[in-house]
Amino acid sequence: MDSANIDTVRPAPDATPELVKADVKALVSLCEPDMVDINALITARMRSEVAVIPALAAHLIAAGGKRLRPLLCVAAARLCGTTNTHHHNFSAAVEFIHTATLLHDDVVDSSQLRRGKVAAHLIWGAPSSVLVGDFLFARAFELMVETGSLRSLDILSKASAIITQGEVLQLMKAFDLTLTQADYIEIISSKTAALFSAASESGAVASGASEEKIRALYSYGMNLGLAFQIQDDILDYQGDAADLGKNAGDDFAEGKSTLPLILAMAATSGSDSAFWERTVGKREQKPGDFQHAQGLMISSGALDAARSVARGYADMARAALSLFDQGAWRQALESLAVYSVERQT
Amino acid sequence: MDSANIDTVRPAPDATPELVKADVKALVSLCEPDMVDINALITARMRSEVAVIPALAAHLIAAGGKRLRPLLCVAAARLCGTTNTHHHNFSAAVEFIHTATLLHDDVVDSSQLRRGKVAAHLIWGAPSSVLVGDFLFARAFELMVETGSLRSLDILSKASAIITQGEVLQLMKAFDLTLTQADYIEIISSKTAALFSAASESGAVASGASEEKIRALYSYGMNLGLAFQIQDDILDYQGDAADLGKNAGDDFAEGKSTLPLILAMAATSGSDSAFWERTVGKREQKPGDFQHAQGLMISSGALDAARSVARGYADMARAALSLFDQGAWRQALESLAVYSVERQT
């Protein structure tokens, strides 16, 4: 049934990559039949006799988010013409791993909001958030083991270790004014892009794709993840809490050395340098500082430069798909790459 | 090389189970060649470019503890005559999972001491403890995946989910005076015995043992874990901080409904009941309360009764080994079962 779906939605062969629109809807629509099963699997595996576990997990998972990682896994498997449903298990697993890291991150960062809702640790307490994160992580591995795909298990267990190293590195480097652009890329490669690439790579592996296609989808996910995270970090200096579903200005308040901040600091001097030294270096922030920071981000050209870097990664993501035939799945993934850097929420 | 070791240490065939001594040394000695490799593997896999990770992990892992779970895994594999070294990976993995849960537990419980050292979160902060725990958990799965033993992976991923459910259940039931003995057994089956049984079962599975032997070693681990945890909970009302390497009285201070407390409350009335209601039910504790609680534990016979329950589980653990031939490994595991309930530290 699933391979029939692919053929019926194949677009005109003359689709021009250059005209690709920033759009996630095409991908969501293509993935819908798979996502129905995946969402059912997610709900089933959140269950526990210990009532607080599904309640807390549902608070975050039901709030939605973009489900980008499951979509990536499904699209990779479908693009490679999978004939099994292993990608359902891997999709649920990557969403669980992602949710677990969000739960732990919010405890680590003492965040107030997540996906437009009060952060779970403020409702159920940090201990429950830590333990339910652990539970989801364990459940993710149960889901993977059921497929019997050792190679996908290898990919996702390695990615999980890389993610936590990225998180720790970011924690160590908070309020560190000496962080370079290369350090930043290393951090977001680990903490964000590693799970994007693991999602697409494991989807390809689970479908029995060729090594060439597996490498291409790994590269797509990695570059997409980098583009996506940079745009996230840009939006943190642009949006407000209502738009983003999280606190805009959080990165500034936490002193996170993101690309906009690194580029802005590199491009400023004099009293502006003193501003960054006080607000980020010494963590002395007062009302109005964030708005001043936003102004400096624009006037220094830092936001534009960061956007340009993000677009470069999005272009690389699209280029990685060149070995695949034109078709609905490829086009949807290209649109996702453009969307990742053009989105405003 | 390894099967030779087994034969050379085989004891006289007339060893009598009834005379088994409370002893962990025989097991430690038998496992030493394996443990050299396992400790090297543990050290190698703690490594990370992010310096705080090995530093924090080493603080806990190097502090030692009894390494009971790796010893169990090795003994199970050797008892079943394994001819490979998969049990090295599983032993390192169970130690990592155990260490990860300790790191998270100490954050959850705000514990001050662990293995006689200041708890890691008080040195590196709770965020680092949470993330390094996650790192070790991910590394555990990497180690398991390398063996290619899907069934052992299945056992340990399921055990990981069960452990976290037990932890959450315990958290929810803190200061709950209505907790029954059955609730308590359910909690410790999950939070402690599940990893003991997974260690011994996965060792048996990795060795290619028969279903009968796998079941027997699962049962041994489960009953040993129950006995071990009950004795731990008894010691929390007996020992002092210096002896135990953790805070004696912690359970009382945290209002943990352990078997000694459940039995003591069931056996007391009048002013003693009011004491438990105030100190555990209402969390109103003052200096001298713990010493009074210790006194009630003895006078009510609760500690003796708890000890009797623990001995019952230790006996069941020993009984589970009856289908194995007499020999050094079986005898060492029997001694471990007796040791688990007779130890004073």
TrEMBL record, chains A, B:
EC class name: transferase
Gene Ontology terms for molecular function: all-trans-octaprenyl-diphosphate synthase activity; metal ion binding
Tagged with keyword Magnesium: yes
EC number: 2.5.1.90
Catalytic activity: 5 isopentenyl diphosphate + (2E,6E)-farnesyl diphosphate = all-trans-octaprenyl diphosphate + 5 diphosphate
Keywords linked to the UniProt accession: Magnesium, Metal-binding, Transferase
Purpose: Supplies octaprenyl diphosphate, the precursor for the side chain of the isoprenoid quinones ubiquinone and menaquinone.
Protein name: Octaprenyl diphosphate synthase
